């Protein structure tokens, strides 16, 4: 475990955190996870269910299981099957544990209702079908504080803010010259950070669709990812150096001209996905081809703190 040190901040209580693999009976076995090369979230979890995008010939499906349904999965288990193309991202609604959103190669975003006991048959009847992108939709993010607000990012370089209650687009953000690699809301949803194929990191005010700050992110050509670090005014990005080494960097949201710190992790080829736990202030870095999860500790960061 590594620690992001900030002047005047005490050592974290969680610096000795370590993971223990679950016993076999506590795992989900025999799931044919998608082999799609898209760098997005193929698994999503909430207090009731775990959802996983699965491999299928034609169309796109994902599996939804109650959290307690561990063990070996029946190959013919019920799935969500309504997309006409591969599913590229799935996210649970933070305000309703029975609603999940998915986006797909078929240029749509769909919302699904999952009953409390889980699926008993294949589900192909969505509750909302959102059309607005002209090319496939690669990423979706729910607004953390405003119910029924969802943002999608497509390969048409557009971000669309949706009111899923009415099924209407409330804003279209057109400030990216190339494919968007990731999105992350800050804690109250007033800002959204993005990474893009043009190697730039941006902080955007989503109501007006204007870029408040931008800067060159990682120098490598592979996908970069970004996450807000709570209410600290900082962001953490992952990416690659020009020599293809995996890196993470910490930034001030108000000045993206240069990172506050940047560290090399290893020379593995898998894209790193950052996950921030607001309660423990721990960042987890997981990669597609990695067999381990990196953990970084973030102290109680103030605007005047400097990284050593």
TrEMBL record:
Keywords of the record, alphabetical order, are: Repeat, WD repeat
Is-annotated flag, keyword Repeat? yes
Q: Which residues form the DUF1899 domain?
A: 7-71
What organism does the record attribute this protein to?
Timema californicum (California timema)
Q: Which Gene3D superfamilies does the record match to this protein?
A: YVTN repeat-like/Quinoprotein amine dehydrogenase
The record's comment on protein family reads: Belongs to the WD repeat coronin family.
| Renumbered ranges of WD repeats | 80-122, 130-172
Could you identify this protein by its name?
Coronin
Q: Does the keyword Repeat apply?
A: yes
Q: Which PROSITE patterns match?
A: WD_REPEATS_1, WD_REPEATS_2, WD_REPEATS_REGION
The record, for InterPro entries, names: Coronin, DUF1899, WD40/YVTN_repeat-like_dom_sf, WD40_repeat_CS, WD40_repeat_dom_sf, WD40_rpt
Lineage start? Eukaryota, Metazoa, Ecdysozoa, Arthropoda, Hexapoda
- MF GO annotations: actin filament binding
């Amino acid at each position: 475990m590594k620690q992001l040190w900030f002047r005047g901040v005490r050592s974290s209580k969680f610096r000795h955190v370590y993971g223990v693999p679950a016993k076999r009976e506590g795992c989900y076995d025999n799931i044919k996870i998608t082999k799609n090369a898209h760098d997005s979230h193929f698994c999503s979890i909430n207090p009731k269910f775990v959802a996983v995008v699965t491999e299928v010939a034609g169309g796109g499906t994902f599996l939804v299981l109650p959290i307690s349904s561990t063990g070996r999965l029946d190959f013919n288990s019920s799935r969500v099957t309504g997309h006409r193309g591969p599913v590229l991202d799935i996210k649970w609604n933070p305000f309703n544990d029975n609603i999940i959103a998915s986006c797909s190669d078929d240029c749509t975003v769909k919302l699904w209702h999952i009953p409390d006991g889980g699926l008993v048959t294949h589900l192909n009847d969505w509750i909302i079908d959102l059309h607005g992108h002209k090319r496939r939709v690669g990423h979706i993010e729910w607004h953390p504080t405003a119910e029924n607000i969802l943002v999608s990012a497509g390969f048409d370089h557009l971000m669309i803010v949706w009111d899923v209650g009415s099924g209407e687009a409330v804003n279209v953000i057109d400030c990216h010259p190339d494919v968007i690699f990731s999105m992350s809301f800050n804690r109250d949803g007033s800002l959204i950070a993005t990474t893009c194929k043009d190697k730039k990191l941006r902080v955007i005010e989503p109501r007006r669709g204007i870029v408040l700050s931008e800067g060159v992110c990682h120098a490598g050509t592979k996908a970069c990812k970004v996450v807000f670090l709570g209410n600290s005014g900082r962001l953490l990005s992952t990416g690659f150096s020009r020599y293809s080494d995996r890196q993470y960097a910490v930034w001030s949201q108000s000045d993206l001209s240069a990172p506050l710190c940047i560290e090399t992790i290893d020379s593995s080829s898998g894209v790193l996905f950052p996950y921030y736990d607001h309660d423990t202030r721990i960042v987890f870095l997981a990669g597609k081809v990695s067999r381990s999860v990196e953990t970084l500790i973030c102290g109680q960061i103030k605007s005047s703190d400097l990284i050593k």
